C-alpha cells in the first residue's frame, strides 16, 4: 500500500508540474464549423483585422495551424488554432488559449472558478464562430471533378497583391483593359479570367494575370501595360463558386482538399473565369465563377 501511495503521489506531482509549467495552454475551446479548413483559415485572418491585435495571424507549420496574439487591457492572449478536417464540409476547430503574462495564475484558478480570462476567451471565440457562420452562408463551392481548362488567347495585366486584394486588383484594371480593347475594336472571346502564376499560402500573397480572352488580330493595342499570351488546354480539377468574388479563393482550398483526398497531384496555380459583373449588384450567391486547379502533367 505504501508503495502504491508513493507511486500515486509521484504521478500526481508529475501531472501537476506538467499542468502548471509545461502545458502550453491555460484554457481550450473546441467547436465544429460546417465548412472546409481553408475557409476557416482565411476567416480567422480577416476576423483578426477587426480586433485589437498587435500582430497579423501567423502561419504555423501549415494552413491547419495558426498563431494569433490579441491584446485585452494589460494582458496579451495567445490563441493557437488547430483546424481538423472531418469531411468535405465539416471541420473541428481546437483553440488553445494562453495569457502571456498571467498563465500560471490562470492555470491555478481555472479548475475552481469561472474566471474573467475564461469568460473573455469564450466571448472572443463565440464572436469568431458568428463570423465564420455568417461567412459560410454567403458562398457555395461545388466540386465538378476533372475537366479541361479552356484554351484562350488573353489580353492581360500582371498583378501582385494579397489574396484578399485580388478582386480589387481585378476591378482596378477591368475598365482600363476593356476601354483599350474597345478603342482598338478588338473582339472579345469570353468572360474575364484570372490566371494565378504564384501562390504563397504562408504569406497569403499571389501573383496573377487578369484580363479578357480575345480573338487575336492585328488591331491589338501595343506599347501599353497590356500583355498577351495563350492559355493552353490542360486537365484540371474544376469547381463552381457562387458568392462575392473577393472570396473566390475559398474554392482553391476546396479543390486542394479534394485533390489530397483523391491522391491527385496538382499545381497551386488556379485559373478563374468570372461570369458576372459585380458593378451590376444583385444577390451575390447568384454570382458564378468557374475555378480550375491544374493537374500536374506527370500525373497523366
TrEMBL record:
Signal peptide: none
Pfam families given in the database record: GyrI-like (PF06445)
Domain AraC effector-binding intervals: 142-296
Alphabetized Gene3D superfamilies for the sequence: Regulatory factor, effector binding domain
InterPro entries on file: AraC_E-bd, GyrI-like, Reg_factor_effector_dom_sf
Designated name of the protein: GyrI-like domain-containing protein
Organism: Flagellimonas spongiicola
